[in-house]
Structure formats: structure tokens, C-alpha cells
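Bumping my old thread because nobody answered last time. Still need a sequence for this structure:
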């Protein structure tokens, strides 16, 4: 009776394989050997997508901050122009207020600039964002009545139409209202 090699034989030693007794590491089904580290293509793609979303969000925040800064600068220019006009009203002789300022329009300039800094609203008759109205008391020579002056700045800003209004009341010198 002939015995076939390998049939019913004991292995040479534990862990030996048919390639001459050299021990090999079995492969995992995804092509990686056990214990190897690294990233799969899906992990890399998800990381890239998250990075891009984060960068786009950061860019959007930066643009929003820039727009808000521009709107704040516009409002500061309008407020300064308004205060300048109110100061001019206060330093003008009472008798000249109505004739000098009623219905007067003005532009708003940034310091050192030749062109107006703010654009007037569409349809504005005079094309200037600032306007002053001085309402004389009725009767006009009544010393107990006050002049009411309103200074208004209306402009097209970064976030659409903007308005800033201040009013003051001016009495005649020596009057006791």
C-alpha cells in the first residue's frame, strides 16, 4: 500500500504553510495587511469636503464683517455730516435761519475726498442725500415761539435705503419760551 504525501500526515509545525515552511501573514479582504495604518479614499474625500465647507463658511463670515464695517462707516459719515449741519444752524443768526437753511440740500463727503461719499435715494429731486427743513413759528415774529429745524440724511447704503434724522428747536436770543 502506497501512502500519498500529505494525506493523513501531520503538519511540519504549527503555523507552517505549503511554501516551504515560511510563515506568511494572511491578507485582509480590502487588500491591506493586518496592522497596517492609513486612510481610505472615502475618509480622505470626507476630510476634504469638511475642510472646504469650513473654509467657505470662514470666507462668508469675513465678507459679512466687511459689509457691516462698510455700513457702519456710512452711518458714521452721515452722523458727522448731520452734526456739522446742526452746528452750522446753531451758529447762524436767528433772523437768517429760515432764509439760509430752509429747503437746503447738502452732500456728504469723506474727509479728504472730492466726490460725495453717500449716494442719494433714487428719485431724489436734488440728487443730494442731505436735506434741512426749518419751520418758522406762526406767527413768525412771536418771541415765545421756537424755530424747529430738522436735518435729514437719506442714502442708499450697503444694506439698502438708510435714514438718519435729528431735530432741534431754536429760540430767539433773550426769549423765554
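Sorry it took so long. Here it is:
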Amino acid at each position: 500500500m502506497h501512502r500519498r504525501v500529505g494525506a493523513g500526515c501531520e503538519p511540519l509545525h504549527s503555523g507552517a504553510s505549503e511554501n516551504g515552511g515560511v510563515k506568511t501573514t494572511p491578507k485582509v479582504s480590502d487588500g491591506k495587511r493586518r496592522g497596517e495604518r492609513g486612510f481610505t479614499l472615502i475618509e480622505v474625500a470626507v476630510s476634504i469636503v469638511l475642510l472646504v465647507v469650513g473654509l467657505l463658511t470662514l470666507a462668508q463670515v469675513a465678507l459679512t464683517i466687511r459689509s457691516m464695517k462698510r455700513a457702519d462707516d456710512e452711518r458714521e459719515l452721515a452722523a458727522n455730516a448731520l452734526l456739522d449741519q446742526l452746528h452750522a444752524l446753531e451758529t447762524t443768526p436767528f433772523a437768517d435761519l429760515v432764509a439760509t437753511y430752509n429747503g437746503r440740500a447738502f452732500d456728504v463727503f469723506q474727509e479728504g475726498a472730492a466726490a460725495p461719499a453717500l449716494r442719494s435715494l433714487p428719485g431724489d429731486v436734488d440728487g443730494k442725500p442731505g436735506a434741512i427743513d426749518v419751520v418758522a413759528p406762526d406767527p413768525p415774529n412771536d418771541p415765545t415761539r421756537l424755530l424747529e429745524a430738522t436735518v435729514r440724511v437719506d442714502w442708499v447704503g450697503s444694506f439698502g435705503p438708510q435714514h438718519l434724522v435729528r431735530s432741534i428747536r431754536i429760540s430767539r436770543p433773550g426769549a423765554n419760551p
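The beta strands are 104-106, 130-135, 147-157, 160-170. Let me know if any region looks off to you.
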